[in-house]
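Model the whole thing, not chain by chain.
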Amino acid sequence: MSSYKRTSSPFLKIAKKFNCFYINGLPKRHCKPFVVEGHQVGLVRPDIMVELLRYPEVFIVRPDSVELNPAFRDFDERTARVEQVLQECRANNTFVTLKGWRNECYNVHSVLTDPPLLRMDRSATCLFGIRNYGVTINGFVHDATRGLCLWLQRRSPTKETWPGKWDNMVSGGLSVGYGVIETAIKEAQEEAGIPETMLKDIRPSGAVSFFFESERGLFPNTEYVFDLKLPCEFIPKNNDGEVETFDLLSINELKEIIASPDFKTTSSPIVIDFLVRHGVISPETGGLGSLQEPNYAQLLELLHVPLQSIYHRAPPSENGDKVL
Amino acid sequence: MSSYKRTSSPFLKIAKKFNCFYINGLPKRHCKPFVVEGHQVGLVRPDIMVELLRYPEVFIVRPDSVELNPAFRDFDERTARVEQVLQECRANNTFVTLKGWRNECYNVHSVLTDPPLLRMDRSATCLFGIRNYGVTINGFVHDATRGLCLWLQRRSPTKETWPGKWDNMVSGGLSVGYGVIETAIKEAQEEAGIPETMLKDIRPSGAVSFFFESERGLFPNTEYVFDLKLPCEFIPKNNDGEVETFDLLSINELKEIIASPDFKTTSSPIVIDFLVRHGVISPETGGLGSLQEPNYAQLLELLHVPLQSIYHRAPPSENGDKVL
């Protein structure tokens, strides 16, 4: 017999944190779609819009959208004209996020499977709410005494974003020119020194989507998730200077760490998804799974928020009522 | 280097079928929230509303909602008054779905973890777009020659809904009085004769949510998913007369069958989720996974549509623009 007493929702609480914009910002903020060549590719907050108004030859702010000037002829012209504005903003310290200029670009797509419309420095995409795509590898071990364990990294204290925080073993953004699996393999080698012989066992295991907001901007993130069962004796070894240490955590250790402020908020959904898929988190107690989340179905929805629907909204119906 | 040529999306195509209401109906149909005791518990289509207008002492049709008369005092009175209307509709053949009256009730909740507000026959919940919760067990085998294989059932040709169709090995709705894990175990014994010794290995593996529509009504479904690795020699045996046969299918056989009209549409998301979690479906070709879905991230979103957000919509913002 199911009972209806209120129990705590440890993972739902975290899911609301990494979805702070989906839960609180999206229904309340008056953001406008960012439109390039007739496609919505982003979402612009009012505070960002105010700054973009200073560049009317590049950004056309309309009642219901912010449009990149449709007179720009192609990928190269769009990229150059936006870059020019961003460099000026960077020089003027207009946006905090541009202090972390990366000199590494993300492509801006309508849909990932379509050709890109322009490219933009990684640090700038959050200003326009451009969708980010990344890749994460969960390196795990079945330890004879500790049971299921997951490798995590501590980010280098010199990293521009989330310095010193706990993070997934291997992850990376889908940069210009790299495919999903290619990125996974490249990052596994650079970030954790995983040899090719072990990498043949990485297994595509799903994708998580969530919508986070920070002082830097908007983060509609989609992570392609891979699982990799590692030999017990293997120890990851960083090769690019971005990792402080690697640690192998048991389920009990993970449970403590993931809810702490020492964990990179936008990496926690991947760990929670891993714990769900491996049967660790359960909808009810009763022998199955060791951690309970009473709002299990809601948690699963918040690991896969409808970014596709948010960015490809149906036109308003006749009475102007947007249902989606 | 990723390429942008259009490739076919076999699984996305199926996901749009079991989400036909989420994709096409929800943005376009003028449905109204069904409200009980101040909580939205359902969604009512205009064609159903027309019939409910004949019972103004039970259903109050307002400009922006259909409300169950708030004068009803408690669970029992709400249940009895709705039942009375449904029995009259059933006698008058008002709704096709009521021909399949089940004499088995679903609880109607605001949230599953809260006490129920009323109960209603299973055949009637689709008229009000009440959320359904169910449980599915994926029984799978690692066959030495055929590789990963999944047990499926053929539904009995005498079943009221989806007669003779391919279906998951074990599934059942969360009926009044049963918990999630309890339902899984009960159904596994009744539907597939799985002995208790094997059942101790069932593993909670997530939940899928989707929003289907048929001539019978609206189906906002959430399925709690369990995986169960079975011994190669075990053969499921039905004990309740609802199953015609069980068959063990290889990945290649599954791939053919799942896209066919012989597969119960509302059971296919659970199979697709299984194939994603077991690394069979991959975002790209390249050695990993045997089946490719180029719109992988979108597929994952459509296996977990935001029923929670749809049923607990934030109030419209000041300018009347509903973003979610």
